[in-house]
């Protein structure tokens, strides 16, 4: 993969690679991307855990969605009446 960076950003990346002791810009970019992937995985895991611990499970089926649609329609209708 080839990536073209603007001059200022390219110089910054090269400097970061050198300061971090990376043998090349490629190694630096690989490290940054790997770290970002790991951070994202941890964030998703945390969100999933929060979801599991958030309360009683709700069965999401056609009845659930029909009730949600009715509620949304009521909210829209009430809002229209208030503006009316």
What would you say this structure looks like, in words?
The chain is an all-alpha fold and 84 residues long. The chain has one domain (7-83). It is 75% helix and 0% strand. It is built from three helices and no strands. It has helices at residues 7-19, 25-52, 62-83. Helix 1 (7-19) crosses helix 2 (25-52). The longest helix is centred in the middle third of the chain and has 28 residues, at 25-52.
Strand-helix topology:
Elements: H1 7-19, H2 25-52, H3 62-83
Helix pairs in contact: 1-2
Low-confidence spans: none
Number of individual domains = 1
- Report mean pLDDT, rounded to a whole number: 95
* Percentage of residues in strands: under 5%
Largest sheet: none
Q: Total helix count?
A: 3
Regarding quaternary structure, what we see is single chain
Key phrases:
84 residues, mainly alpha, 3 helices, elongated
Describe this structure in a few short sentences:
With 84 residues, the protein is mainly α. The chain has helices at 7-19, 25-52, 62-83. It has one domain.
